[in-house]
What we know:
- This protein is mainly alpha-helical.
- It has 2 domains: 3-42, Winged helix-like DNA-binding domain superfamily/Winged helix DNA-binding domain (Arc Repressor Mutant, subunit A); 49-186, Four Helix Bundle (Hemerythrin (Met), subunit A) (Up-down Bundle).
- The protein has 10 helices and 2 strands, in the order ααββαααααααα.
- The chain has helices at 3-7, 11-23, 48-54, 60-85, 88-106, 110-127, 131-139, 141-151, 159-170, 174-186, and strands spanning 27-30, 34-37.
- Helix 4 (60-85) crosses helix 6 and helix 5 runs antiparallel to helix 9 (159-170).
- The longest helix is centred in the middle third of the chain and has 26 residues, at 60-85.
- It is elongated.
- The mean pLDDT is 88.
Amino acid sequence: xxxxEQFGVSRTAVREAVKTLTAKGxxxxxxxxGTRVMPRSSWNFLDKELLSxxxxxxxxxxxxxxxxxMRSSLExxxxxxxxxxxxxxxxxxxxxxxxxxxxxxRHFQRERWIExxxxxxxxxxxxxxxxxxxxFASLFHSVYHTYFTSITQNEVVKLDLHQAIVDAILNSDAPxxxxxxxxxxNAPHHVNQ
Length: 193
């Protein structure tokens, strides 16, 4: 029985699905051999769609663990570069986001905090001026959202550590921004699924 018959779809739909999964490194079609499912080591985890498929409740801890390793490698450097390269306009926008975070401490709204916190982090990646770092923030948007949702209870998270990063960036203190970011990332977070 062919896949199209088994799932009640056309050959065109099966061809498109195979093409999509092949582009993600999940399948390897070969003439006269057939199509093989590839091991996870061949999958392209830098694919937004694959990330969203992988980020399930069953895989949550594994995905977050890998994400945090990647984030701790890149985000301090993004802060360093944001302090070194950020324009006056970008710094003003970062400060505006920080002011909103401070306001949310007084009148906490969980969903709004998550949105602003994500925007704050993503803005720092943009400020870095490095297209790879900017792409990282965009690529991992869904992972950031899921992670921030899991660590945000009914109060702002590590406001003083966020402020230390902003202060360093506004003062163009690149080494200070890097250290402040490392302090934020090394602070204990309680993750709830």
